[in-house]
Amino acid sequence: MEGLVKGLMKVALDAVAGDDDDDSRRSHSPSREERSRSTWAQVVSSGHEEDAEPEAGGRNRWSSRKEENDNEGNEGGWETVGSGKTHQQHGQRRRPQKSWQAPAETWSAFKRHPDEQQYMGHAKNAVNVEPTREELDDLSKACSRLWELDLNRLVPGKDYEIDCGGGKKVYQKGDMASECLFSWLSDDILRRPTYSRFCSLLDNYNPDEGCKEVVTSEEKHEQTAFIEEISRTAPVKYLYHYLVSKEIVSDNYEHFKRMMCGLWFDLYGRGGVSGSSSAFEHVFVGEIKRREEKEVSGFHNWIQFYLEEAKGRVDYQGYILPRRRGPYPDSETQVLTIQFEWNGILKSVSTTLLGVSPEFEIALYTLCFFVGGEDNHVNLGPYSVNLKCYRFGNDKIGSVFPIAEC
Fold it and tell me: What is the Cα–Cα distance from 161 to 164, expressed in whole angstroms?
């Protein structure tokens, strides 16, 4: 059913509404009042933090609504979500949002303890995940190998379709895209194990950069389950063998998984408040800087973009014209530099890897963090990119994202 999976994600994520180099390399002081994650859409949209009242139950707002729907006698354990509204932004008609149905038991399964969950099998032995000497000596070759090992990467035109719209310079104002970036996504994509686990994490954060995060035991289970799931894939197995060969991690896969969980999910201070950010939140979910002028920071993941766009929270405003003469992006492009607004707040320039799997991005960025520098000029299949990697202190990822080089 067209849109089935969008509904699945929408139910799970309904509780949640420029990278600056200096932010990635420094910590800040004093703190602000901690707020509930459940009100973030109102906070970001209105800009009046003081007026936002937390909802009882925090991120369990979806669970409460689920119980209400169950009590109303919905048939077969399905929930209808979506408003059926047409979104109007900047005077341009956006694609209407549909009403979808999603099987509620799918998401309740993700709330179990990691030991009680079912995971996919490990990558087949036929897949060679051992790095060669050339790859150990050349980061670009290692990144190319990761691209080849991303067996879960989507195929443009088969699994999804995009509409790039018009191009613009970074400084140019105005919306150059009359349609959404994503025209459609196949129903089965977000049901895939690593994609589903990834999506279950996206509602765990308040995007206000100055808000202290509270991590529940349920959210910790989701983090552990995600790392466990991706650890069964070829890209992450390759990363492990690479880091073992470099003597960066010990030859113990359980220790490696715990390290990965800490690297991506441990909280640190950003925006003047301790415990307000993490590598995962910044890179994949996105944050809102609340300074003299609000701006979007981080937010480099295509799945998060797709889901937020489907809910009408993202307004795609066109692609950024290449700095050098070269081919313009089309529906087949999988490295795209774009401009968009998130809840009315501008992200002037952001390069996104389209259709890649969660395990590939985690493996790629982790590899650059451990063996690369601030600038990492590499090839990903047919694409030349600079993977920018900023540290937060000595042992944390402040930010990591691609920059297209053509």
Answer: 10
